[in-house]
Amino acid sequence: MKIRRLDHLVLTVRDIETTVAFYTNVLGMGSVTFAGGTHALSFGEQKIHLHSADGLIAPHATHPVPGSADICLISEESIAQVVETFQRVGVTIEEGPVQRRGALGPLSSVYIRDPDGNLVEVSTYQPVVA
Question: Which tens digits make up the pLDDT trace of 33-62?
């Protein structure tokens, strides 16, 4: 077997509406509501499905709890623009900008927390210097 890419991941959250507002208003993701009332956030070719902690959808992780995720998202904007956006909308930066290593090379990253306390790393790839 050879895995090609990540399609989606699931976040367990306390409040779907609060989570959707944060990810759409702060990070510019799209909001999707499916038949049956399930929700997801869309960006690029990926999705983040949202499960309410008090109404989990089976099957699910063994111990799903809000605030247990640590994800890295790649921004189209420069890291300076990312920082400026967070400052403008009043989102506290936990750390950064700092240098990290991503799947495809060096990153500039800033870390924030979503409404459930999940750690969200927003990064931009650094240009390769020949």
Answer: 998 889 999 999 999 999 999 988 889 899
Q: Where are the domains of the chain?
A: 8-125
Type and span of the H or E element at 86: helix 79-89
Strand partners, 16: none
Q: Does domain 8-125 have CATH number 3.10.180.10?
A: yes
- The Cβ-side half-sphere exposure at 100, using a 13 Å CA radius, reads 20
Q: Which of 18, 7, 12 is nearest to 68 (CA)?
A: 12
Which residue in the list 17, 76, 94, 121 is annotated as catalytic?
A: 121
Strand arrangement of the beta sheet that strand 39-43 belongs to: 8-13, 46-52, 39-43, 30-33
Largest Cα span, the chain: 52
Q: Are strands 95-102 and 105-113 parallel, antiparallel or unpaired?
A: antiparallel
Judge contact between 62 and 70, C-beta under 8 A.
no
Residue 121 appears among annotated catalytic residues: yes
